[in-house]
Fold this sequence. Notes:
Protein name: Chitin-binding type-4 domain-containing protein
Distance between the termini: 114 Å
Organism: Durusdinium trenchii
Helix content: 10-25%
Oligomer: single chain
Keywords: Membrane, Signal, Transmembrane, Transmembrane helix
Mean pLDDT: 86
Amino acid sequence: MARGRRSVLVFLCAFWFQMFQRAESHGSMYEPPSRNSQGMSLLAPTCPGGACQWYNQGCAIGCPEITGLQTGCEKPVEPSLKDGEDDELLQYKDDGYGNPTIDHPWRFPGKSPVADACGITAGYIEPEGQLDPPPGFSTGASGRELPKLLDQTVWVAGSVVEVAWAMAANHGGGYQYRLCPVNEELSEECFQKTPLEFVGEDQWIQFGNGYDPGNRIQIKARRVSGKKVVPENSTWTMNPIPGCAVTGGRARTKCSKPTFSAPADDRFWPYADGTSKGIFGYSGGYCFGNVTKKPSAACTLDEYKNASFDFGIVDRVKVPDLPEGDYVLSWRWDCEMTKQIWSNCADVTIKHSGKNTKPFSPINGCTACCTGICSKCKECREKKTGECASCWEPLPWWGGRDFWTPRAKAIQCLGREAEDGGPGKYMPGDPLEPAWSPGCSKCWASKDGCEKYTREFEGVIEKKSWGSWTFVTMVVLAVAAAVAGALLLVKSRR
């Protein structure tokens, strides 16, 4: 009986810790676009379509499985990244609540277990997890079961390609990209067989809301390899954006100092107290503390806009010499401040010849409407009652729970489209009402809207681009001038 009471007490203490010391670290892979986004643009690049809500929680180095809570196991392994020896790769000695980070995932990159290598909504199944699923999902959904995007990405074996991710909330740590054949079980074991090799010593912070390759700054990457990581001798890259030196900056805490030297120190970043140079901070997660415990954690719209990162982190990786076919790319971010691991999965087709998909090229964005959360609504365009009612109602963040403020507008499948039937518009700082639509009316109206679509290839001139047409015009004029000159020369010789 005493043992039973003790077990109940342990559970209640762990549950209390989970409910009131939640962590809001969130990030997403957005190049190539992930299954977790369902091809939606809302909150891109930091959390497209809610992709930043797919992760694993309760991850500690050397533990046999995750707990779903911010707790680990009794016997974690010794960290490979040690205080005093690897300080250039570390920034947090505690989690912001006074608890040591010595067994957190980044202390031994790749060593912590995950329950789903493509992420789980809200971190685990109820009653554990963080209870913060993205719109259209309940807590505990499996990322492995998400449909492939209709928008396809092609890579050529042996080539170098660009990949990118972005942060909705910053907890330090580092990341790796890995591949698994699509016809195999999408397990951590499969992905660990083929980690991708980072190319060069640099990486980029890319602006233009993360999608403009012409608007980026180059920085030196911090990488770690050898026996300090799993798989051994693979390479992990440290998150290059420093957090806040005091409590990480979450729950609307003042942030006037970075944990290490901030990149782009010639730029002003309007974060928190609005006085600091360089790019650092907690991103939009600054505004997502538990308002049940701390009502002042809620931000104004302007505060949310100023805190949100409007950039992505770009790396170059080498495509392995693999057989031609379809593969799943897993991006894994091992956090330092929390016992959390973020994971997204994307689909790529590997070929032995041809061209690579142009990075950051547009997608049609119809997956959510055709095979995802709004696919059931195609027959509801003229009906708003019964089973169709939910198609005309907002799908809220967090499953409707109100202990956090909303991350963005709610998603509504029908009734909130733009004038052309396409997706609505939203940027952090915009009003949260009305809801946002992925633009299903436009997808369904097109005969090819629900068909597979291969993204633009590198080196292909797009007729829709004014810049491309200018280039074509210049080429035509140059050829015409050359021909005219040749004719005049022949005529003069006669």
